[in-house]
Design a protein that fits this description.
With about 290 residues, the chain is of the alpha+beta class. The chain is built from 6 helices and 18 strands. It has helices at about 25-40, 95-105, 140-155, 180-195, 250-255, 265-275, and strands at about 1-5, 5, 15-20, 25, 45-50, 60-65, 75-80, 85-90, 105-110, 125-130, 160-165, 170-180, 200-205, 215-220, 230, 235-240, 245, 245-250. Strand 3 and strand 4 form a beta hairpin. Helix 1 (about 25-40) runs antiparallel to helix 2 (about 95-105) and helix 1 runs parallel beside helix 6.
Length: about 290
């Protein structure tokens, strides 16, 4: 097929990627083609990593940072420095590049909170990952998110909720470019404040023993070396109705959530929502709403 003037040879379209729901590779390619207009602003310019599972959930999966074997030579790459050197990573700057990666089994897209052009010390987004431990769920995450929204608002930051497509909730806030160390310190402070307010409900530590019955506010994804599942990406996890998606939601929906199923969306749901509501995260990329991290 041809996408934006680029010819792509798509393979194994009938392959079932999600066995319980029967979602095929063709359906996932169709989803990404439809959702690209609202997804691209949130991944373009950012070095991407992927969770690859060419055979679907029944096969092997792994995290891939370097360009997959077989990636077209026109897909842009950028050199990303690391502690032990540097690697080349794909930058998804077009629907064609997105479809090319999905065709190679890179179904789940992750990006950092900085762009390659600005560099690792110029984060333009803050992210908090609310991850429910055993005995808690998305509903509890929503209540905690509402309190975090209040705290962010008091500091002049606009909170944007995204269900993770797994179990929890991501909160983003657009910020003026700042170092990863500074935004991590601020995010950690927020997590620790909530832990002090609700010690039986919230934890800021990664220790698994502390997470039972509590929600982890993972502030560490603001580190320059970390990535977060990109808005609108399919997750390689299957819910009751099919694959989950990291889907933007409204604060009204967060407030009304009384069951995890209230905010569980399939790829088809997310396309329908985008067609009707547009990009609920449009403000995330606007310079007009960026604020300084206190």
């Amino acid at each position: 097929m041809e996408v934006e003037g680029r010819r792509l040879s798509l393979s194994h379209l009938e392959r079932v990627i999600f066995p319980a729901s029967g979602h095929t590779k063709a359906q996932l390619l169709h989803y990404y083609a439809r959702i690209a207009p609202v997804m691209l602003p949130h991944v373009a310019g950012r070095p991407a990593s992927f969770v690859r599972a060419p055979e679907g959930l029944a096969g092997e999966s792994w995290i891939a940072k370097t360009p997959p074997t077989g990636a077209p030579d026109w897909v842009p790459v950028v050199e990303v420095p690391h502690r032990d050197g540097a690697t080349e990573q794909v930058v998804i700057d077009s629907a064609a590049a997105l479809i090319a990666m999905v065709n190679l089994g890179a179904y789940e897209v992750h990006v950092p909170q900085w762009t390659a052009a600005a560099g690792r010390d110029a984060h333009d987004r803050l992210v908090l990952d609310l991850d429910p431990g055993p005995g808690t769920d998305l509903v509890v995450c929503c209540r905690i998110a509402e309190r975090l929204r209040q705290l962010l608002d008091e500091d002049g930051l606009m909170a944007c909720p995204v269900v993770s497509g797994s179990k929890g909730l991501h909160l983003y806030a657009p910020v003026r470019p700042v170092s990863g160390r500074a935004v991590s310190a601020y995010a950690k402070g927020l997590a620790e404040r909530l832990t002090s307010e609700h010690p039986g409900l919230v934890v800021a530590s990664m220790a698994k023993l502390e997470r039972r019955g509590r929600v982890l506010i993972d502030w560490s994804q603001n580190a320059s070396a970390k990535t977060t599942a990109a808005p609108y990406t399919v997750r390689l996890r299957e819910g009751a109705r099919g694959p989950g998606v990291a889907a933007p939601v409204t604060w009204d929906e967060v407030g009304a959530c009384r069951s995890p199923s209230d905010l569980a969306f399939t790829p088809e749901d997310v396309v329908e929502r985008a067609d009707g509501l547009g990009d609920l995260l449009a403000g995330l990329g606007s310079d007009d709403v960026r604020a300084r991290v206190p």
